[in-house]
Structure formats: C-alpha cells, structure tokens
Design brief:
With 328 residues, this protein is of the alpha/beta class. It has a single domain, classed as TIM Barrel, CATH 3.20.20. It is 38% helix and 17% strand. The chain has eleven helices and twelve strands. The chain has helices at 20-25, 66-76, 103-115, 146-163, 177-184, 203-208, 228-241, 255-264, 275-286, 292-306, 316-327, and strands spanning 36-43, 49-51, 59-62, 80-85, 120-125, 139-140, 143-144, 167-170, 189-196, 245-249, 269-273, 310-313. The strands form two sheets. An eight-stranded parallel β-barrel has the order 1-4-5-8-9-10-11-12, surrounded by nine helices. A two-stranded antiparallel ribbon has the order 6-7. Strand 2 and strand 3 (59-62) form a beta hairpin. Helix 4 (146-163) packs across helix 5 (177-184). The longest helix has 18 residues, at 146-163. The termini are far apart.
Length: 328
C-alpha cells in the first residue's frame, strides 16, 4: 500500500483530544453560570413550593419562598432570573398583569429587598397568564386585537419597572409591542422575544403557568417555525423599535436562527431553552435512555456555540453546579 501523503503533514485533530486537560485547553465554546437565566414561576400563598408535574425539579413558588431560591442561584453563580406569575384571579383583559400589587410585582419587591442589585430581574410582559381565555392579548370576537393589546402591554411594562425589574421582556408577539413599551419606558432595558415560534415544545410551560388557550391556538400571532427570513425581519423590526436585547425561542429547534442573528446583529442575543426541551431530556433520563447531565450540558453548549450569549434554561441551577465542579 502506497501512502501518498507524508504522515507528518496530515491533519490529526486527535493530538489535542488525548487528555481532559488538553480538551479543556482548546475548547472553543465555554459556558459560564453568569450567562444562564433561571425562569421562576410565582404563585399566591405562603410557604408554597409546588412541583410542576411535567417539569421534574421545577416548582411554583410563593413570594416568601423566592429569597431562598435566589440565594441558591447566586451561590451557584447564576445572576439573572425571568419571572412568570400565576394570579389569584383572571379576567378578559388580563388586568392582573399591571396591578401594583400583582403577583410578579410582589415577587420583584421581595427579591429586590432580599438580594438588592446582586440579581438581574427580568419580567416577562404578556397577558396569557392573566386572561381568562389564555390568549396573549385582548379579544375581538375570537381573534386577538393587536392594537388594543399594545396599550395594555404599555401599562404592564411600566408597572413591572416601577416594582424594580431591571429588564422587561415583551413576549406576546404583538406587532409594535417594543415601540409601545419604549415610548413609555425610555430608560428601561427591553429584551424582545423577537423570533418566537408557535412551537410544540411549549406544552409543559402552559401547565406550569396555567396559560393554555381556552380555544384555538396562537399561530395567528406567533411565528411559523418554517420561516427563517421572516425571523430576521422580526428581529430587525424590534431593534428599530428600541429593543436592547433579542430573544429567540425555542432554542434547539432554532439554532440556525440563533447563528444567523449572531452574524447579523451586534446586540446581546438570548435563546430560551423552553419547557419541552427540558422535559424531553428529563423524561428520557428518567427512563435511562439519556444521561441527564451530559445531555443537558451538550444542549446548552450547542446553544452557546450557535451564538447565544444569554441562555434562559430550567437547567440553570443544576448546570451552574456542574460548571462549578469542573472549575475545582
């Protein structure tokens, strides 16, 4: 057998894979706890830590339980949370979203009082958790009225900012939502859910937040997952309206969009590893089909490799602990 290439000149990537230390030395994508954001679900009551059936390890917490949860996150190096609320009551307009004593407003106050500015508090801005019909805006007949909803989102965001939120995150996918909020909040950071697809991976969240639509679905306002060019247009529109940061959701099914956004825009880019992504890994791990830790870390690394510098994930606390172990 004749070797046509000098062995000394053949590319051999294996040379740098031989030991864990070498692999760590040349690793291109590095996760850090500070880039992770932990979603938290807040509900009424006291002393409540209620496990979410479809999301093992995740809980609905009462406001008084939040300081302890924040302490665990900070101890692990996670510096940011994203808050979702389950109100005591709902109505057609979702008025609990902007109430001064609303559940998320209370949560922000409790966190701010407990940990000060150590934690970046991101507040989701949407009506689906607060409306009796479960849609993300007010209805005209059985359709969501985009423009009527804008005025309500523009009431909700200032209420959350006044309570102490560092960032407001409009997720309703109403056209013009960023502009409506920016007009009333010139100095508050906006993380725009710019490319949010109607996704099969949202199912467990709707149980966690009690936000499933009572009829129909959200495909008339959330994006078609098949449309990549439209996603870019949505992102650019939100930036023109005044967004400071951009979110892509869900994460793993949209890694191409994350990579495209990173190549296109210069602002901070977030991706949301959503409830179904988390639940799928957990369920497979419970059956022994996957290694939970390995699968979680590989998926988070893929999201970061695609270009996301901020990752919203239900694995935040666990993943931070695993990363801290590797640093010892």
């Amino acid at each position: 057998m004749t070797i046509l290439t000098d062995p000394a000149t053949v590319f051999r990537g294996r040379r740098l894979r031989r030991t864990p230390a070498l692999r760590a030395l040349v690793r291109e994508t590095r996760l850090h706890p500070a880039m992770l954001v932990a979603p938290l679900f807040v509900r009424p009551g006291r002393g409540v830590r209620e496990e979410i059936g479809s999301m093992p390890g995740q809980h609905r917490l009462s406001v008084d339980e939040l300081p302890a949860a924040a302490g665990r996150l900070l101890d692990a190096g996670v510096r940011s949370v994203l808050l979702f609320g389950l109100p005591e009551s709902k109505d057609a307009d979702g008025s609990g979203a902007w109430a001064d004593d609303g559940i998320v407003q209370q949560a922000i106050g409790a966190l701010r009082g407990a940990v000060g500015d150590e934690l970046a508090i991101i507040a989701d801005v949407c009506l689906c958790e607060y409306t009796s019909h479960g849609h993300c805006g007010v209805l005209r007949g059985e359709s969501v009225d985009n423009d009527a909803t804008l005025s309500l989102l523009a009431r909700t965001a200032p209420s959350l900012a006044a309570a102490g939120a560092d960032v407001v995150a409009p997720s309703a996918m109403m056209d013009g939502q960023v502009a409506a909020i920016r007009e009333v909040l010139p100095d508050t950071a906006i993380l725009a859910y710019a490319a949010k697809h109607a996704s099969a991976f949202y199912g467990p969240f709707r149980e966690a937040a009690d936000s499933a639509p009572a009829f129909g679905d959200r495909r008339t306002y959330q994006m078609d997952a098949a449309n990549g060019r439209e996603a870019r247009s949505e992102i650019l529109a939100d930036l023109e309206e005044g967004a400071d940061m951009i979110m892509i959701k869900p994460a793993l099914p949209a890694l191409d969009l994350v990579a495209d956004a990173r190549a296109t825009i210069d602002v901070p880019l977030a991706a949301y590893q959503v409830s179904g992504e988390y639940a799928a890994i957990c369920a497979a791990a419970e059956r022994g089909w996957l290694d939970r830790r390995a699968a979680a870390m590989e998926s988070l690394t893929a999201i970061a490799r695609a270009g996301a510098g901020i990752i919203v994930t239900y694995f935040a606390l666990e993943a931070a602990g695993w990363l801290n172990e590797l640093d010892r």
